[in-house]
Structure formats: C-alpha cells, structure tokens
Amino acid sequence: MKVDKELIKKVAENARLNLTESEIKNILPELKEILNNFEIIKKAPTKNIEPSFQPIEIKNVTREDKTSKCLSQKEVLKNTKHKSNGYFKGPKAI
Amino acid sequence: MILQHYLKEVKKGDVSIKKTVKAILREAKTLNKKHHCFNIISEDLALSQAEKQEKEPKGRLAGLPISIKDCICVKDVESRAGSEILKDYVPPFNATVVKKLVDEGAIIIGKTSQDEFGFGSFSTNTDNIPKNPLDTERSCGGSSGGSACFTQLTKHPHASISESTGGSIANPASFCGISGLTPTYGLVSRYGLIDYANSLDKIGIMSKTTEELSPIFDVIKGHDKKDSTSLDISSNSNNEVKKIAIIKEAFEIDPKIKDIILSNLEDYDVISLPLTKKYAIPTYYLIAMAEASTNLAKYCGLRYGSTLPLKGSFNQFFSEVRSKYFTKEAKRRIILGTFARMAGFRDAYYLKAMKTRTLIINEYKKAFKKYDVLISPTMPILSPKFSEIKKLSPLENYQMDTLTTGPNIAGLPHLSVPTNSIGKLPVGTLLISNHLEEDKLLNFGRKIEEK
Amino acid sequence: MKIGIEIHVQLNTKSKVFCSCTTQSSEEPNTNVCEICGGFPGSKPVLNKETLQQGIKVALALNSKIASETFFSRKSYFYPDMTKNFQITQYETPFSINGKLDNIRIKRIHLEEDPGALIHKGSTCLIDYNRAGIPLIEIVTEPDFKSPNEVRLFLRKLITILEYLEVYTRKSEATMKADANISTTGEKVEIKNITGLKEIERALNYEATKQKETPAKKQETLGWNSDKGITYLMRTKETEDDYGYIYDPDLVKIEIPKELVSKLKSQIPELSLDKSSRFKKQYKLNKEDAEVLASEQKLAEIFEKVAEKIDPDLAAKWLIRDLLKIINYNKTTINEIKLEVKHLIELLGLFQQGKITDKTVKDLLIELIKEPFSPKEYIKKHNLEIISDSGNLEKLCKEAIKEQPKAVKDYKEGNEKSIYFLTGQVMRKSKGTANPKEVEKILKKLIR
C-alpha cells in the first residue's frame, strides 16, 4: 500500500476526523517526510528480540474481586450537556 | 534552598502559610498576564487548603505551594491537558500524586500551560502559549512549558509537578534554566494523569534547584494499587557516583553548548550509543502516536469536554466534534498513530518499534554495567524564537527531541540541571542513570550546580 | 452447511473486570459507574483476578490449552456504548486456545469487557454505562456445526457446563450474545450481535433456511431484527482490519503458572456428561433419566443423597416426574426451593414402606418446597397414614352405606359404577389414607 491521498482519507475516516481537501494536501507531504525518515527502523536488527510492552518488565498485577463505591449518577453526568433522566444522550446509533 | 528553609519555618511556626499562599497567587496572576504559564489558577482551592494548614500544619510538605501540569487531574478543578476538546472538564477524582501531595499538606495553586496532551517540544500546540521567562519572544520548551516558566519566575517557595513522555520535563527545564527530574517509569503513579502514551508517560518534578526536588520526590514516589504499571519496589538509596561517561553522539552539536557542559565535568569516559542515536526518534514517535491515537478516541463530545448539538449519525457527530476541537498537531499524531497500528502496517511500524525499544533498553543497560551516570546536553539548541519555530516542519519539530527520547523510551530516570548560560539563554546538562537510581542523579546534579 | 459461532458469556463475579464497581444490576441508569469503567481521562484499569480464574475453569472444562502467559489489547472502534472508544480485549495472546466440546473444535477463549447499553430513540439514543466493564468471556468455535440444531444442542450443553462451574446464572441466558457465520455453497455471511439463547437459535434457523434456498453471492455482515424475525444487511464501518489492535499499555503481562491451572482443575466438579454416564451405571437408570438428573448440579446432588437411603429407581421417578413438575408449576428453580434432603428421604421412605399414598407424597412435596418441616410428624398430626386396620375401615364403610342408600340400591341393581362412588366417600372420610382397593373389597362384602 502506498501513502497517498486515498490512504490518508481512509485513516482519517477510521479515526473519525474530517479532513478538508486542503488539509489533506498539506498533511500528505508532511506524513511522507516523517515516514521516509522513520523507514530506518525497518533495518533495525530485531531478530529474536522480544517487544517491550513497558520499559521495565512489570507483571502479574491483579486485584481481588471486591466491590467499592462507584461515582454518584450526578458525578458521572456532571461533565456532559447531553443527558436525560439519568442517561447520557447520544447521537443516532443505528 | 528556599523550599526546605520554608518548610522548616512552617514547622517552627515562624511563617504564615496564608500570607505566603496569597502572595504567590497574586504573583501568579501578574506573571500569567505576560507569560501565560497557567491555564487556570485554583485560587479558591489554594486558599481553603491554606486556611486549613495555617490552623494546623500537617504533613511533610505543610503549606508548600505546588503548581500542577494541566494534564494531571485535580478534583473539581478544570483539567484539560492544554486541549480545547477537554475545555471545562472537571474531574470527579484526584490523581494519586495530587492526593499524596495534599495529604502531606501541600497547597495546589493552579494548572500550568502545556502543549495539547503533551504533543510538542515548545508548548506552542495549544491556545495558551507560555512565554520564556528570560525572553518573551522565545519558547519555554515543551510540553511542560508553563511549569518550567513559573518555577523560574516565582520568588516564593514552590515546586511544579509535571510530566514527560519523550522529554517534556527535561526540555523546558533546560530552556527555562531550572532543574527537572523525570523518575524511572512506574516509580510515580500515573493514576489520574490524562494519557499521552501510557507506556512512556512519567510524572516528575521541577524546581529552581536540584536540592529542592528531593522532599517532593520522597512524597510522590511509591507503589499505587490503582496503577497496574506502578512499581512495587523502592528506589535505590545508594547515591555514590563513581564513574561517569559522556554520550559521544549527543555532543555532535553546537560547540558552544558542548563546551559549557564539558567545562563542568572532570574524569569522564566517552561512550557510544549508536542504536539509540539511530532508532530513538522513530521508536519514540511510533509507540507514542499509536498509543495516543487510542487514548484520544474517547474525546468525542459525548461524556465530557467540548461538544456540538446532537445531529446526524454517531459517526458524523463524533467526526465533527473531533475535527473542530483537536489542534492540527493532535490530528497529525492521531493519523500517524492510527496508520502505524493499522492492519498491513502494524508489524512494520508499531510492533517493530516495540522491539527496537528493547534494543535501546539493552544498549543503555550495557552502559550502566560500567557507569553510574551518562551525560549529554539536554537540548541540541538554545530556546528558539517563536518566529523560528513557525518555520520548522513537523519532522524538524520531532527531531528536537533527539537527546531526550532515548532515556524516555527506556524509562530511565533523568535530570536536567541548569548549567550556565549563553547570553541570557540557559543551557541544561542531562544526567541519565539506571532504573531506580534517582539518588545518584540528585547527588551528582547538586555537584554540577555548585560549580 | 458450515456454521461457526462466537459466544459472549458474562462471568459471575462480584466486581467488574477492571474496576471495583458492582456487577449487580441496577434500576437506575449510570449508578454502577466509576471513572474507570466510565472511561474518564486519567483513570487506569487493574485486572480482577477472579475473572481470569473463572475463565480458566471454563477453558479446562472445554478441554482447552491454557496459555502460560496472557496479555490484553485495545480494540479500537467508535460507538456510543463504548466509554473509551476502544474495548479492552485479548488479541494475539488469549488465555486459552484449541479446545473441544464433543465434535466441535474451540479455536480460542478470551477475556474482555462488556460495553454499555443503548436505547434507540428516534434521532438520538440514551446510554446507560452500568453494564460497561462487566467481565465477558468470548468462546470462538471453528465452523464445525452442520445445522442450527447442532448449535442449539452445543449451547445447551455449554450452559450446563457453565452452571456446574458456577460461573453462570440463568439470568445470564438473556444476556448471552453471539455472532455467527454461516456458509452453504456460496460465500460466508456473518450475523452480528444476537442477544439471548432463543434468539440465537431463531436467527440461525432463519438464515440457514435462507442460505439453503439462495446461497450468498458475496461476504456480508448481517444484523438480527428479533421483532420481525429477520436478518438485515448491516452497514459496518469497521472490519477486523480496521480495529488497529495495540497491547494495552496500562495493563501488564499476566503469567499463568502450572500450579494455578492444576489447582483450578481440581476445583472443577464432575461435569454433567461424566455424571450421567456414572448414574446410568451405578444406579442402573435409563439414559433419559440419568441425563435429566445430571443436567443440573443441585438436582444431581439431591438425587445422590436420596439414593443412598431410597431405591434409586423410585427416587429418580419422584424427582423427575413430580418434583420438577411442581417446581416448574411454581415458577421457581431447584436452587431456590426450601426442600431439605432429609425430609425428602423421610417422605419417600414412608412411601416405600407403603405407609402413605401417592397423593400424600404429592401434597407434601408441594408444601415442602415452600417451607421445611418433618413429614413424619405432619403425617402423624393429620392422620395421613394408610388405614390398614380393617376394623376401622369397616366402620367407615358401614357409615358410607348408611349415608348413601341410593348408591347401594343402584349397585345391587347391577350398576357397577356405584361402587366407585361409595369408595370415594370412604376415601374422603379417611382423608385419603385408605387403600382404595381394600375399601372396595370391604364394601362389596358388606353390601352382599
């Protein structure tokens, strides 16, 4: 796959961003420049090298199955304008 | 030493907390007009905390004014990580660091300005751009620009809690001429930190001098059950620095900066970190952007932050809100990040970067078998003018992080120490140690400062 | 025809999978929500240990391989029921792969979080995030089913297993969700998000019939409209390629030590399949009875205790024929009834000894599921024992003859049926404790 207008459009749609034609025109050479520069990583000698999920290996962190207090409905809904009878109100979803 | 001195005076009852807090709030308001270092000054909260502490000073940081980078949640105080999309967002909970600080008697005076979600090296990717304390035509660095700016300017006892993903503490500390500590990944809880890139984000501290970092560091470090990546081990208390080395590749820069830094050092070896030099920037940006693009998905005008009237299908609504309120840089990173983890590219970019991260960690680990501290300049340049920043392409912007991304990718503690100036513009020395060896950095940093 | 399914089952934990909000349902929307399951900026997930342990038990019961380590991923897609617009799930590293139930191969089982619930309202929707973050396991089969009926049998069996493992309650049946893919001679079609066991069966039957008549010409993603009972074409933006999985950097690698797996294995009770074949052998029951008794753990437990004291054949008959019927009639479940096993043994013991009638057993069972009491004492108190003493019976018969001269006359005139009427009278006088055959004999003797 080539990094072109069509690819940018597809990625933007996937990320829920509307880009105007002029935005796409601007962003395309920028992305090409960045990705060209990043190409070097493909040559890195990573055969038999494990990925690092975090910089320090941290493992086996879990919690016991215990409940504690949740937020109040008021706190949950405090930061939104879109609400109705204790529900969040959202856009058409079908 | 102002900070420790103040804490002692508070203990003895020789100083009024209320007076100090009122004075620093007044100062913050005045400075903010010219320097834009705060997104919000939490006057009411600070005064009520001061009132409480004045009556009965309690805790290791009783009465100490602290500013907090905007991306760290303070309950009931707008916390928007420098973004427009989170405008008016008031978290229903405190970040663990904030809780720890308040429990030890600290006073929260406000939220400092920054690049949106930490996306930048000059704090210019936001609506409230901090201006350099020494020259308002120039940048404070980023992304924790506001924190560094106010830390340099204030005349009062104060420290700032900031955050680094790829260099966001060291960089502004260097440009503003203060001391900035980025601890080992996982040593300070990230709970309540508005995520940029979770496997890289680290909360740290800024203060005028290295000495002043210690009491704050002692309070904020330590295990937190609410953060799965929080380390359940304490940092190493051995602070003896026997052997140091300068990083060869990091000194291939402006000779004036190089000379200032080297003139403060004696008895050093030269070490080469070729893999870090080659791969740090792409590794950092690919991981950071892939993670960031998922973190930013939640901002869609539904549950919090900026929104629009409900109209059209959910896809149209989400797209409109996001397109309207994210900055250009945020959009660029979302697109790059989404691309890097897309099927067909994921192996070559995202997964590859997770592996090159291992290469870089291994390279550092090898160096720390021999050396206690590795040294480089913090930034390859002096603080640039805003007019110069405008001319940089996105890639040139990203390349400004060339010296700081290495230790950040490897989660290594690092400290930027103010080291003389060129004209009025400060230079910072970057000290890097092995995981959990912050005490070596603090010890060695003090020595450099004394020179 | 080839069918493969992906089943989402809610686990039975107290708290959610990545936060400590309760999993209990709530009348009020958005009351079981915290900053973590609500997706507030800065909050971080921590894995509930119990979810993984329950998941491993299910995987072991489905003969699956348990991974030595597992990790979580972010699956990105935008939808209003998602609090973060990514779901924490497992991608490259599920905790279990390669299982088998009967002849159906199980590809993988992984752990993930449930999204919230939507109510569609014209041009908007209402969202309740109480469900967001409830632990789910997703069981993915290979396309090994040859008919919807095979899927139905598989799901029934699966539910029995889940119940035995106590990771599942009947209420989860309505929340069980599935995606299914079907192909006949044409392309593969996928039906997404069918909710409820019955609906899964309906949707598959509908689509299977449709596919037999006109096989799909291209790959399609369908939805299921349960009101109309039809599938419809879904316009989805995301396909598997667009989810852009990354490892969730807020969570860490979880190792699953061999010792934990063997410990969990030892906690798995004998599952229904093994149990029914053992019942068949040990108690010499027929296949159907053994299967019914083994289908629910509590029922099997009651049966085995009773069978220690009572003839197993008799015990099986009473449990299947009567107790289950009474339970169904009273709209309750075997787990909710108040019946104590010792009382059941007492009751059936009396019956076995011929001391009480069929009817008395039935009447008392109806009462015993509501509250516990000793059948022995109750029978004594209410004189419900079979009257076998013929003197006493004769007395009652004489009374009946005296009271019903017309019936006696009819009988004498050759109306055989009148004797049954008289017998009934005597039975009523004895409160059902008399042996009707005995009564008939005495009556005939007395009238002659």
Indicate the topology.
The complex is a heterotrimer of chains A (94), B (451) and C (448).
Chain A: H1 5-14, H2 21-38, E1 62-63, H3 73-77, E2 83-84, E3 87-91
Antiparallel strand pairs in A: 2-3
Chain B: H1 2-12, H2 17-35, E1 38-41, H3 43-55, E2 65-69, H4 96-103, E3 107-112, H5 145-153, E4 159-164, H6 170-176, E5 179-182, E6 202-207, H7 213-220, E7 244-247, H8 255-263, E8 268-271, H9 274-295, H10 314-325, H11 328-340, H12 347-368, E9 373-377, H13 386-391, H14 394-399, H15 405-409, E10 414-422, E11 425-433, H16 438-450
Helix pairs in contact in B: 2-3, 5-6, 9-11, 9-12
Chain C: E1 2-10, E2 47-48, H1 49-61, E3 65-66, E4 69-70, E5 73-76, E6 86-89, E7 96-101, E8 104-113, E9 117-121, E10 124-128, E11 135-141, H2 148-164, H3 172-175, E12 177-183, E13 189-195, H4 197-213, E14 220-225, E15 230-233, E16 246-247, E17 254-255, H5 258-267, H6 272-283, H7 287-295, H8 297-309, H9 312-329, H10 341-352, H11 358-368, H12 375-381, H13 390-403, H14 405-412, H15 418-429, H16 436-447
Parallel strand pairs in C: 13-14
Antiparallel strand pairs in C: 1-11, 1-12, 3-7, 4-17, 5-6, 5-16, 7-8, 8-11, 9-10, 12-13, 14-15
Helix pairs in contact in C: 1-5, 2-4, 6-7, 7-9, 8-9, 8-10, 10-11, 13-15, 13-16, 14-15, 15-16
